[in-house]
Design goal:
6 helices, two-stranded antiparallel ribbon, alpha/beta
Length: 204
């Protein structure tokens, strides 16, 4: 992760900043938005596993703090996808990320790789977050595989396109979420894009 941060700051926009959160039974903001790599590295080294996993709360908090910021917004989580102690549910966290226009990338940690012990539900949650925000899920192990996954995240962050969309004559519905689909004609290309936006709802 330290190599990723060095590359991120070296190759990116000089205005790029990173915040760091930890989440177990509670969510803690360890570093406010900064370009100070030494501070981030020091806090990363101090993170230890503890009881509980509040993944959804962490995504909610990060999304709320990203919503008012300018520029591209990305949430990267390192987790097995499980959640045991959050106060909010999966859907509330997803809504917060979509309202913030944040893309969720996940580094999926699988301490148990056989089907009997894997957290299939958690993996599916991460895949859904990625699919609906335009991100991806990477499943590295260690060493070269981890470096390759982080390089993949960095490459995607540097090669995104922005497409603007203004809805016209869309009638309000009871569901505030309006679905969108982005397609390309070339079969050798894959689209990763958020799957909709929130608009006005029909009052009950």
């Amino acid at each position: 992760m330290n190599r990723f941060l060095r590359a991120f700051f070296a190759e990116g926009n000089p205005k790029d900043v990173v915040a760091l959160y930890s989440f177990n039974w509670e969510v803690r903001k360890l570093v406010h938005f900064t370009r100070n790599h030494s501070t981030l590295e020091r806090q990363l080294q101090g993170i230890r596993g503890e009881a509980g996993t509040s993944l959804y709360d962490a995504i909610l908090l990060a999304s709320e703090e990203l919503e008012g910021r300018d520029g591209r917004k990305v949430i990267m989580v390192v987790t097995d996808g499980g959640d045991t102690t959050s106060r909010v549910d999966f859907h509330k966290a997803l809504e917060a990320a979509q309202l913030a226009d944040a893309v969720i990338y996940s580094l999926l940690v699988m301490p148990i790789t056989n089907d009997a012990g894997r957290n299939i539900g958690g993996e599916h949650a991460l895949e859904t977050y990625a699919e609906r925000t335009g991100g991806r899920v990477f499943t590295p192990s260690v060493g070269a595989a981890l470096d390759a996954a982080l390089a993949g995240v960095l490459k995607e962050l540097r090669t995104q396109y922005l497409i603007g969309y203004y809805p016209k004559d869309v009638p309000p519905t009871k569901n505030r979420f309006h679905r969108l689909e982005v397609k390309v004609k070339r079969p050798d290309l894959r689209v990763s894009a958020r799957n909709g936006y929130y608009g006005d709802s029909q009052e009950n």
